[in-house]
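Fold this complex.
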Amino acid sequence: MHRIRAAAAVAVTVSLMTAATACGGGSSTNGGGSNDSPKTLTYWASNQGASIEADKKVLRPELDKFEKQTGIKVKLEVVPWSDLLNRILTATTSGQGPDVLNIGNTWSASLQATRALLPWDAKNFGKIGGRDRFVDSALGSTGAQGKDPAAVPLYSMAYALYYNKKMFADAGIAKPPATWDELIADGKKLSKSGKWGLGAEGSNPSENIHHSFVFAKQHGADFFTADGKADFTNDGVVAAVQQYVGLMAKDKIIAPGNAEYAQNQSVSDFAKGKNAMLLWQSASANLTSQGMSADAYGIAPVPVQSGTPGTGTNVNSMVAGINLAVFKNTDNLDGATKFVKFMTSDGEQKILNTAYSSIPPVKAAQADTTFNTAANSVLKDTLAGSAAALPQVADESQFETTVGTAVKELFADAAAGRPVTTASVKAALEKAQQQMPKK
Amino acid sequence: MTTTATAEAAVRESSPGAAARGPRRRTGRIRRIGLPYLLLLPALILELLVHLVPMAIGIVMSFKELTQFYIRDWGTAPWSGLDNYKVSVDFDAPVGEALLHSFLVTVGFTLLSVGLCWLIGTAAAIFMQDTFRGRGLLRALFLVPYALPVYTAVITWVFMFQHDNGLVNHVLHDQLHLTDEPSFWLIGDNSFYALLTVSVWKGWPFAFLIVMAGLQNIPGELYEAAALDGAGVWQRIRRITLPSLRPVNQVLVLVLFLWTFNDFNTPYVLFGKTAPEAADLISVHIYQASFVTWNFGTGSAMSVLLLLFLLAVTGGYLLLTSRGRKAADV
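Structure:
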């Protein structure tokens, strides 16, 4: 009897330990990829369009085209932006992820550090036509400097200033603002009778980071030191964040209600004529889907402190965009590479970037006349001459959330009518810095 | 199963050949003793797999320096000794200070939420004791918040709490003119009250259901006797209803406490990944430490500390209540 019980206990323990090791050890993630399952691929696409259904409508015909060409069936899942990073983390831990996936280009270095993504060395780039096919600024957001990229650029975007032509004309403003002083002056003229000068997404950490980063560049400051250490409380960064939140707190050209926006409500407000200006990346498709005609708004470069946009302190956008990555442990390595080649081919680049009103990061496709419209030329010029990549450090993802959340709290203060001072900004950034992983 | 076993035993007892019974009886005994263990085995295995093994893994993780560099194969993460615990309880440094703040917010929130849930649930259950027209319909209505999927219910509240277009501000500001300006409910200090409202709205029907079940067990004669002695409604509630509900309430309060203290869904759907400071409940705080800042080791240490706290509270509570019960029995 005792022997039976002991044997049963041992059997249960051994089976559990095996299960635990399998769960935690992630033995399946250790593989370097294989071609065991050459006929299918799973693709996680980030939600780019107005809805998941809209994305499926864009992507499905292209994936069917790929199947016709190669005989490889692609299982598509469009993942909402808010879930994407967690899904990738879970897949990294369990080893049960897709074969190919979209990642936000600012996450490249963080995800590269997990070693779960296939490195794009010269050999792999060779399989998709070579590294030279891609625009340099887009390649700048594919991983840490000096390492093989963790992903390949798919869609490029840049921030621009969208302005409502009629509201500008009604307020007697002849041209879009080129500096922040002009923007504030115009904003004050426009902020009346329930309408506001500018829209913002105060509760969205990523949006907060993108703007804070640009303001910091314009103050000649960075959030990280040259050797990759967090440096969130230097004077330039504090002044930058204060200036950004000050658009609501001090200049009062952003509606206090925008402090709780996190679901692109400011885009809807702009489409409805509640805000006269919007700082957004590639908003055209979104605005069209909300019923705003393309001739109702103009697109201008994001303002700078003085002068014209350029490099250094006249940077006026981050290099925004989406990259395409391959999970290292894929069971269809060749198929995944073929799929990346297909998605980054000149023809597909034109189709996909037109559908998402983004700019192709592939040089040949970018040169196509389709992307020479007035709107696209502003975005293209920004990407080519005055955009900078967010810090390509392993802690970038944590930086986005900690500093983005600090700015969110500062917006909450502004909305409640509390002053946003140099000291309060510094304290919020100090707290964010302390939450960063210690080295 | 039991019926079959008993029947088999009865047949064996009545069958001839008593000399051959020895070994068979022993097999029967083994089967009788082994059967309960066998029946418990699936539950035991699941309990191990679902609770104990992950818990053990979590404890191991709390002693490791687990960041994005190691999550792909967390077993290789370097040991960090008690570092994660030291960081979590260093209340003078920002991480520990934020954890302490979150803990205190959670304690205050839990006490208020459980208290209100219990009060409203009990009042409603007592009110529903009397039969009246429409009682069934009202009871069904009361249970709606409990039956709704959490996400659907909470996201509806998110719409209602919105600053510009929300129903709450529309009623409080536009219609009743109770506030000078529309308030913010999803950011800033008011977020605590928004969270409390949703939590109570979601939690009280459970208290109502359990108290109502408890009320069914109180004999009607007690109330009749009390009425004959001239006891009023309040006296009957105080002297009969509440003491009779004591065992039910003990379990109810404990369950509500644990659920509320650990509630993740409500704040997460209401505020997203990063809750406002005033409503920074500990479950979301730990989630943030783990999944937002990718400090899985520190997040695990915080989880272990939370587990120890809840075990201590639950243990203390059970000890107190069982002592109380023993004293009452004497």
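Residues 1-20 of chain B have pLDDT under 50 and may be disordered.
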